[in-house]
Structures are given as C-alpha cells and as structure tokens.
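Anyone? Bumping this.
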Amino acid sequence: MTTVDTAPIRRKSFKKMITDSRAIQLVILLIGVLILWAIISAVIERPDRYLPSPLTTLFSSVDLLQKGVLTSFYADTLTRLVIGSILGIGLGIPFGLLLGLNRNIADMFYPLMNFFQSVSGIAIFPVIVIWFGNSNTTVMIVILYTAFFPIAFNVLSGVRSVPMRYISAARTLGATRFQIVKDVLLPGAMPSVAIGSRLSIGFAWRAVIAGEMLAGQAGLGNMIFAGQELDNTAQIILGMMLIGLTWIMLDHYLLRPLESDTIERWGLVQR
Amino acid sequence: MATEAKLIVQGLAHHYPDEYTGESVHALQDINLQIHENEFVAIVGPSGCGKTTFLNIIAGLLPYREGRAMVDGVEIRGPGPDRGVVFQEHAILPWRTVNRNIGHGLELRRVPKQERERRVQEYVDLVGLSGFEDRYPHELSGGMKQRVAVARTLCADPVIMLMDEPFAAVDAQTRITLQDELNRVVMATKKTILFITHSVEEAAFLGDRCIVFSRRPGKVKAEIKIDIPREERLWKDMVNNTRFTEARDEILRLVRSEVTNDDDG
C-alpha cells in the first residue's frame, strides 16, 4: 500500500528534478548523442574512414595534443576570432552610431550598409586573395569585414528606431546633444547592439574556419581540411566538435550574460 | 497686484505642410492666453484641434514663426528645463530605474549625487512610489509609470509643468486615483500647470480655468473659470458639487457644438 501511495509522488519529483535542471538535461542529451554516434559507428563498414567512434576520436585528440599541434591550432584560430571580432565590433559600433545620429545621413547610407551586410565574407574572399595572396592578412581582412557590417548595420538601424518620445523627453529635461546620445540613443539601441554583436561574432567564427581552409593558414579550419587529405576522419570530427563547443561557451559565458543584464533586465525583449 | 504671468502667448498661429499632400495645414490661429503663478489651466477641445501642437510649441519641440510665446518673460526658442513635460505615455526611459528616471533632469544638470538623492526621495514619496525605487518601468503598472513621469518632471523643478493628456492611456479607475493625486501634488508643490485633455470631466475637475479650443484651425473659443478651492476637489465629493457639474455641463456644451459641426471630429 505504502509503495503505491508514494510512487506517484517520487516519480513526479524525479521528473521535476530533470525538467528543472538545465545541466542534467544537457548531460542526458549529450549521453544520448554519444550512444547514437557509437551505435552508428559500430554498425557501419570501415568506421575509421566514414565515422570513427567517440573513443577513436578521443584517442586522436590525445595524439594531437601530445604532438602539441591541437593547442597551437586552437590558439591560432581563437586569436584570429578574438582580434577580428573586437576590431570589427569596436569599429562597427561608433560607425553605425555616427551614421545613425543624423536621420538624413542614416537614410542615405542605409541601403549601402544593407547591401554589404548581406555579402558574406566568403563571397569577397577571392578578391581579397587576389589583393593580398594566401596570407594571414587575407584571413584577418575577411574576418574584420565579416564582423564589421552586421554590427554597424544593426547599430545604424537601432539608433534610427529609438522612439522619438524618449528623445523629446530628454530634450525637455534639458539634455544636450551629447547627453541624448549617451542617455537615450546608445541604451535605446542596445537590442540592436546585442543582435548585431551576436551576428558579428557568429559570422566571424564561420569566416575564421573558412578563411583558414581557403588560405591554408594554420588553425582549426586548416586542421579539418588536412584531415580529409590525410584520410583522418577522427581529426575532422574533432575539429567540428571544438568549433561547436567553442560557440556554446561563447554564447553561455559572454553573449547571454550581456543580454540578460541589459535588454532583458530593461524589458526591451522577452525571453 | 500686477505680477507678470508665467506663460504669455500672443497672437500665436501655426501652419505645417501635410505629410502626404504637402498642402499647408492651418493648425492654430491667433492664440492669446496667459497663465499665472500657481494657476492650473486646462485646455480641452475636439481631437485634431491642435491642442497637442500648441503644447509642443510651448515645450519648444516645435518651432513657431507667427506670434509670440514667453515663459518668465523669455521668448521660447527650443526645449528647456524651465518647461517640464509629462507626455501621454511610455516616455520614461526603460533602461533607467524609477529613481534614476526621476533624478534624470538633475543628473543632466550635474547636481551633486547627495543633493540629487535627497530630492529624488522627496518626489518618490510625494507620488507614493516608496519601495519601488529600484524597479524598472516594465515592472510597473500604467498608473505607476505616469506617477514616475510626473515625479521626473517635478523633480527638475520647472517654471511651468506641461501635461499632454497624461492619463488618457490608463484605465478609468486608475485615472480617477491619479486625478485625485495630482490635486494633492499641486497643492503640495504649488506648481503652475498647463494641462491638455480631451476629457471634459477631467478639465472641469482639475482646472482653475478651462480653455475650450475650436476645431481646426484651433483658436480659443471660450474660457471658463472654475471657482472651487483645490482642497474641496475630491472625486467622492464632486458629484454633488453644483459648481463642478455646472462648469462641466457648460464645457461639454461648448465642446459638443464644435464636434457636431464636423462629423469626423
């Protein structure tokens, strides 16, 4: 009798524990993916060529770690991403803001910015190679270009979309032009700054990998590319996993906290 | 005693080009009025009569070329902290807490932090927002947001407070409470107020004087004095107050005659 009575309660609390904890959910999901991966790898022919098992991939990473190439490739790639993103966003925000300050200038430049933010870094890659060759400079220019336009375009349209009544209110309180920029336009454009930063860093991350592959510069992208030539599929999968995991970390420890402390706290976006 | 009026408007007129047709629209015509210290003047009129245009001109948000408008003897040229504005809705900044919204005017003027905090607390208490100082606007009800807007304007200590249908967007129950509260605040601060509304009841309840605008082009059609001491102005007593009901009915008659002349109001 007692077991019958307590069973539903215990089951409910267990279910609640799972649904409440994001960490537990993530672990369960990860284990599921690993099991599925291991099963597929076990049943196919020539798994080393088509899909090496999780364990093989792990061994391959230990091997690459011992040789010291994994850390050096990863560091190269991350350095390019960080420098490219910081430069792109650091230049893009003031540029977008400057254009956005005057409604006429903003309207004039809007189509041009809209044009460039749609032409991806990969699309301009060939011409940059013609100009600068297969060099690190080429990769950095493509990353910078990729990071610059999404943020600049979003800040421009964000400044334009700040409601006129906020500006009027600040003016009637005696705000100077500079104070309006600082207290109204910049915080008002924050939702766009957040979206723009996310796009910029996300696109830059793809540009780094693609750029390294195409220009043959040392890094994760090159490691993946080399994996195909060396017939080392484990190396390819390892590179893919590092790319994805890096983004999840960036999102969790940098982008999400930035958003929840600003635009979500102010009620400008709902989540 | 011939004290100079706080706000003097002489022969003010306004034209603007229509957004679509480009034709010149005659919004205001030969407006003459004065508002004295500690006087509460309500402007009422049919929608589209130019009353908000008038307020925007006084606020300095809209440039004017015809006629004169002066605050404390100084010609109005652009916005300034001597004319605080309470807008219809959603004009407090979402990224500032209640405290920082109310103290914004002082912050812009670089009033020292200690002095600022003291003044802010005074106005937080005055409008009954104690305990909500650190909340963000999206966490407040519509009525509380407008209390913040009123406190923000008063805290900057303007010569005249301009209010543009400040209670039009809140529900009827909240509106009554806010109107009662505004009376209390006016008594406490002795502010000079220009109040725009389309509600006849509101104008009669709040105004020492009520100015009726004609439909476009807006001009002063009539002026009604409402001689009720502010201490007696409480909604629970007003229904039986003949001075209030008579003034209200008179204003209503004047506004109705404007509306019925033009069906699209």
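Late reply, but here is one note on the structure posted above: The longest strand of chain B covers residues 24-35.
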